[in-house]
Amino acid sequence: MAKNEVVAGTQAGLPASFIDEDMLTGGNGFENVSAKDLLIPRLTILQKMSPQIDKSDPKYISGAEYGDFCDTGTGEIFKDLVVVPVFFAMVYLEWGPRGSGKGLIHNHGTNASILSQTKPDEKRRMVLPNGNYIAETATWYVLNLSANRRRSFIPLTSTGLKHSRRWMTLLTNERIKRPDGSEVIPPLWFRSWNVTTVEEKNNDGSGKNWKFDPSDPILALDPSKTILREAKEFYEQARDGLVQGDVAAAAEEHAKSDDIPF
Q1: What gap in Å lies between CA 143 and CA 84, rounded to an integer?
Q2: Residue 139 pLDDT
Q3: Cα 216 to chain centroid, rounded
Q4: Model pTM score
Q5: Which is higher by pLDDT, 260 or 113?
Q6: 90, 95, 56: which is closest to 250 by C-alpha?
Q7: DSSP alpha helices (H): ranges in 94-243?
């Protein structure tokens, strides 16, 4: 396969012909790897200015198109996505001014008190006295079923916040019945979700944004409960801060330009 070529997002594991029992016995080299050693790749929507669709950019991916989904860790492109959400957190990221080359300055985590030091600018960004701004970022940790249950995260900020709120509203409004007849809000990972894009415009231009629609319950997709076990494990690691999203690619995008509307 050529460098920076679209990789089909639905491929499963390697064929059995590449596996031998001698390979699977004894150690595997990952003995000292824990969750805290891993960065979770980001899922993003390719916009008109994304380097992955610019043929002159080293990050260009052959076949990638405006509106596609991209795993920034692997470079895989997805025309559509199916995910299972496992954990949500609103985090506050401090960025240098767009175009300044500074990128991400500090991750303030879930501590919203930093907003008390900010004032909104003409674009309604919350700006600190030092000129940096705070981006309220709805962070969703998910299993990407379109990539064989790969652990990923989706950060939604700016115009994406309304789509995050819609998703959370759909999740919290769902009810399931227990065997005794009582109703309960199911956990985030109760069902899978189809992810598509919608075209939107604002004063800075137009772009693609996120849309989440309910799909099959995970036990209907996988009666063996493999998805359930992985979802609960990923949830516990995200809840306890043992995994972190890889924001390096996002930092590069923020550092380049002030013209990105989405």
Answers
A1: 5
A2: 94
A3: 20
A4: 0.81
A5: 113
A6: 95
A7: 161-173, 218-221, 226-239
Indicate the DSSP class of residue 188. Answer: G
The DSSP H or E segment spanning 69 is strand 69-71
| 139 exposure class (CB count in 10 Å sphere: 0-12, 13-18, 19+) | buried
| Cα distance between residue 238 and residue 32, in whole Å | 19
The alpha carbon torsion through 253, 104, 70, 212 (nearest 10 deg) reads -110
Under DSSP, is residue 104 helix (H, G, I), strand (E, B) or coil? Answer: strand
Stretch 198-209: mean pLDDT, rounded? 87
The whole-angstrom distance between residue 59's C-alpha and the CA centroid of its chain comes to 19
Q: Whole-number mean pLDDT of the chain?
A: 85
Residue whose C-alpha is closest to residue 107's, from 118, 92, 117 = 92
**What is the C-alpha separation between 40 and 151, in angstroms, rounded?**
6
CB 207 within 8 A of CB 261: yes
Q: Which two tokens stand for residue 88?
A: 């949500």
Token code pair at residue 224:
């063996």
Lowest mean pLDDT among 154-163, 197-206, 226-235: 197-206
Question: CA 142 to CA 235: how far, in whole Å?
Answer: 9
